[in-house]
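Below is the data:
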Amino acid sequence: MQLRRRHVPHAEVVAEATATVAEAAAGVRAAEVRAMTVRVGVGKAADTQLAIEKATRAAKRNMIHLSLTKNRSIPFNVESKYCASVVEIRPSPGRGLVAGSSVRSVLELAGVTDVTAKLLSRSKNPINNARAAIQALKSLPQIQ
């Protein structure tokens, strides 16, 4: 099985999830916005745009290199657990990308096309699901 290295020179930014987090302390209500970008980066700030910029910087620091097969799939099954999220990613030649939630976004931006991904946990946390997918992709062999 021949593997080839895929490098994306620029980080594509997609705001996957934004949430407003409010907190009351000493009678003052403070609101923050939390944003998650795919290529997993999380940033929190008082403004949505600042949160997305922080998340983008964090995502650029955490980029990984993938070794894909000729048909842009992965060479074998990988499974990973991050916090309560468990994800399994299997190669499936000819089926295209079959995945749900934030795992699909991670795999699309990584350039993986012929895989099936399954969330084996009941966790609905998109950040942990995306990080579990990244951790599974990190466990693949790397070509130098």
